[in-house]
Structures are given as C-alpha cells and as structure tokens.
Amino acid sequence: MNLLFAEQQIEEANKRYGGFTNEFGKMIEDLCKPAALKVFKAEGIDIDHTYEGSRREKAGEEEMEVDALLCNKTEAVAVEVKTTCFKKDVDYFLRKMKHFKEIFHEFEGKKIYAAIAAMRFANGSDKYAQRKGLYVLSPLSDGMFSLEKPKNREVF
Fold this sequence. Notes:
Number of domains: 1
CATH topology: Trna Endonuclease, Chain: A, domain 1
Low-confidence stretches: none
Strand content: 25-35%
Number of helices: 4
Mean pLDDT: 80
Shape: globular
C-alpha cells in the first residue's frame, strides 16, 4: 500500500513540475522571439513572416518542432530556444536541421539559417554553437538579447 501511495505522489509531483517547466520554457520562448526578430532584421535579413511552435511530421514517422521560424521570400531562420543550452542540445538541433526541408516543404528553395537562443549557455555551448555554424542569441542585463554570428554560417 505504501508503494502505491509513493507512486501517486511521484506522479503528482511530475505533473506539477512538468507544468511549471513547460510554462517557464514558453515564457523564455516569448522573450526570445521578439528579440530574434529585431536582431535578425538588424543583421540584414528582412523578416516579413514569423511562425511559432511549428510542428510537422514526415510520412507519419518523423516529427520536428521548431520554436520560431523567421522568414521572408528568400531566407528563413529557424530558432531553437532553451532555458539552459548544453552542447548536446546544439548537436540535437543540428541533426534536426539536416532534415528541415524534407519536413517543411514550403521552405524548399530558401536559404535556411539556424539560431539557438538560451537564457544560459552551459560549458561553452554558445561558442560551440558558433563554431558549428549557428547564430547565438543570449540575454543582456537590460532585457535585450545579443546576437553572436557563427564563425562559418551553416546554410540548410
């Protein structure tokens, strides 16, 4: 009987904590998206459409979600948003981006750039992302975000 009670407590805690972390993550996304729009426009990518939380499936087997897509007629920036970014997150995002056009067909023929935004970059993951060809968005003390350009910009 105690084991069942303990399992119920764990399940309830997971629901509460999971709900909190999902809402916190959404708040971080809501902070990053307008900043991303502003800094990429300043970078010369004149954004005229944005999509949030785009999720697609490929033939019912592969699912891909992009936190924000900033687009114009010829270019797009896919933005992954993290509360804390680790190197494994950068690698995972790069693997996803290799299949971007297979899943998001309407972007075929456009130059696709990728950016990772986070409130905190752990263990040099920001520099790692830059070396891997990603733009990096990180917060400044005044509530704005800085944009670090990749060493060699990856185009997908």
